[in-house]
Fold this protein.
Amino acid sequence: MSLRVDAPLLSVRDLHKTFESRHGRVTVLRGVAFDLAAGSTLALVGESGSGKTTTARLILRLTAADRGSVQFDGTDWLALPRRELDRRRRELGVVFQDPATSLDPRLTIGEIVVEPLAIHAIGSRASRREKAADLVASVGLPASALVRHPSELSGGQRQRVAIARALATEPRLVVLDEPVSALDVSVRSQILNLLKGLQQDTPSRPAYLFIGHDLGVVRWIADRTAVMYMGRIVEEAATAALFFSPRHPYTEQLLASRPRDTPGPRAAPRFYFGEPPSPAAPPSGCPFHPRCASARPVCSQEVPALVADPAEDGRSVACHAPLGGD
Amino acid sequence: MSGTAAPLLSVRALTIAVPGPSGEEVSAVDGVSFDVDAGEIVALVGESGCGKTLTSLALVDLLPPPLRMVSGDVLFEGRDVHVLRAREKERLRGGGIGLVFQESASALDPVRTIGSELAAVIVRHRGLSRAVAEDEAERWLKRVALPDPARQMRAYPHQLSGGMRQRVLLALALAGGPRLLVADEPTAALDVTVQAQILELLLALRQELALAILLVTHDLAVVAEAAGRVLVMYAGEIVESAPVDELFSKPRHPYTRGLLASRPGLAPAGARRLAALEGSVPEPGKRPPGCAFEPRCKEAFGRCSAARPTLVPSGAGSEAACFLLDEPERGRIR
């Protein structure tokens, strides 16, 4: 395949992952595939156990994939030998949900934010010190924070530090795994504004892979949204289109379960049937069929493939009976 | 509030002290007063560190030392909770006031079956025999819509999903026949589809059991969905109290307005910025001398840093603690 100018920054194909546990084998990913364009944001949404975080961990190479490929910036990322990978890790930034546990408590903020540069021996000690001051300012922290330790900061401030650290090496892709889920509502919007502002204003224009479960947040931050269910992507589309007219019944169910923003009865009727099945014992056929109001006989027999929606450019759906069809 | 009947729960001038940074006691909850009527759902909202969970623990005298209630009264059905004898307090917890917290792996006894834990609560509060209590326990599991209750009676907590465990916790909180349920972030750890189911269940049970609920949460969506009346806490004080529709349509306090505006779901698609409240909640002991919200308030004026506003009625059943209410021409209060 020749590399076109508009080739995606990140191209994930057919990712599979099975974990062995004391309760047996659990298949967490069953062929995940998506593209992420440079400088844009793709959200992965879905319930716990759907495989969002495992997908991120495979891309970050914190866990090895059983099968599949990840093309990152023209490189066969999963095939990179360990030494090459260590050298190139800085091209990927990451921010986790809980800044309390992801920052080294013994280091100062000034040391933490440029630690990735120190590890890769980028710049002199003096230039790193200068860089630390710039980074801390870019995430809206006072210069006095440089000499503090993580325990002296609030949750929101710690998440700013984690973001500064993720951006220190000017990565082209940042994985954001539930970056605001542990934060209070007023702090949450500060951090979301910061993330969007940094994406637009940082010269490297990082793309974001945003893992989240708050659909209100996703609607605002993501250009495109991929909905995961039991280890597969079941629908992927431009965020506005996905929210306006979901075509997979699971997407519709997720949107209908979304908490309301104003008092009063819900507009949409509720129609869910219980909780997600255990990943250790997935239903036959389409794994969503036991919870689906529009399931047909074929749905319990054949897994629907994720295919381009003939009715709409730029949307893919994995469903035998998509909504709004016929 | 309903007529002349005494409220089910009445909290007056509740003040709770916690150890400050240099060892001295500082107040984390400061002069909080509110009522809950029978059958009513009152939401207590605020960000972490605002004192809402401490307030709910003080209702049943469960503040972990060295945290302590330094002054104020908590009256439940007209009786002062803090002067009850130990046995009466035990009966109150679960019998008069049920408690349910955020679902977590540690909320249930890991080495006990669901049925045994639930039956023990029923024996303790209702004085039934063990055999009758077991039947009753299974009925409760059915009532909280736990699938296959007969089998789940013999299950251990780790064998259930998060949503199923939260249903069990709800059954435990309600099986003793309380008149008030204190639910602290009951849906916070759950997936959105499960969250909606638990909230719906809570509302159905409240109807069925004529239960009052004090819903402690940071999530305004949960408030919008469930509450009749809302108390907004900031830095250990109630800054606004209003019927839910009034609070969402005409918030009086700038902090409430800020919280409501920062809901991401309300931002127009494609908006570059979300409305955000800059700054953060002051820690106990670092509270400014005037209005605690003054340093973050875009509408603050001279008086706000000099004196502390108190709750004053502001029409339509609302109260707010804000000097803008005295000077409507300054603020954006309609």
Remarks:
- Chain B has a mean pLDDT of 90.
- The first strand of chain B starts at residue 9 and ends at 19.
- The two ends of chain B are 24 Å apart (CA to CA).
